[in-house]
């Protein structure tokens, strides 16, 4: 579905259950930036429920290129979601509410020494592809994620 992600060679994935420590199972790097896809495993079915990104762009003066901070690992573990609570705290609660057995998180480094693809741009592109296929965005994303 997301052919755009095939070119990225620095990538990985991990499983997360609501009783796990997200800090322990997350294998994404702290010092690189990119996007991540979150799949819910529930009653034998798999569903893409969230498309996220790391990397907040910081811009210097007109003569300098923008700088990115907020690595993949930091965003996955401590990034805010739902009621503005860190993922390590709100994901397990939401998983229990929705009876989700596990999350399968796939991460891709899009901004490093090899590629300079801005994570925010890639996330919007992925959301557009998803919406074009399903007519909506993944259920853990918000309308504001498209901007």
Automatic annotation (TrEMBL):
This is GIY-YIG domain-containing protein.
């Amino acid at each position: 579905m997301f052919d755009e992600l095939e070119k990225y060679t620095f990538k990985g994935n991990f499983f997360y259950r609501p009783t796990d420590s997200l800090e322990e199972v997350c294998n994404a790097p702290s010092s690189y930036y990119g996007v991540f896809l979150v799949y819910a495993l529930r009653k034998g079915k798999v569903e893409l429920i969230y498309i996220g990104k790391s990397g907040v762009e910081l811009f210097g003066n007109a003569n300098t290129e923008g700088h990115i901070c907020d690595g993949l690992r930091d965003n996955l573990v401590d990034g805010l979601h739902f009621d503005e609570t860190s993922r390590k705290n709100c994901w397990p609660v939401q998983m229990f509410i929705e009876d989700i057995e596990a999350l399968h998180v796939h991460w891709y480094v899009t901004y490093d020494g090899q590629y300079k693809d801005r994570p925010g741009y890639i996330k919007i592109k992925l959301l557009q592809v998803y919406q074009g296929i399903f007519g909506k965005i993944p259920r853990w994303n918000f309308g504001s994620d498209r901007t």
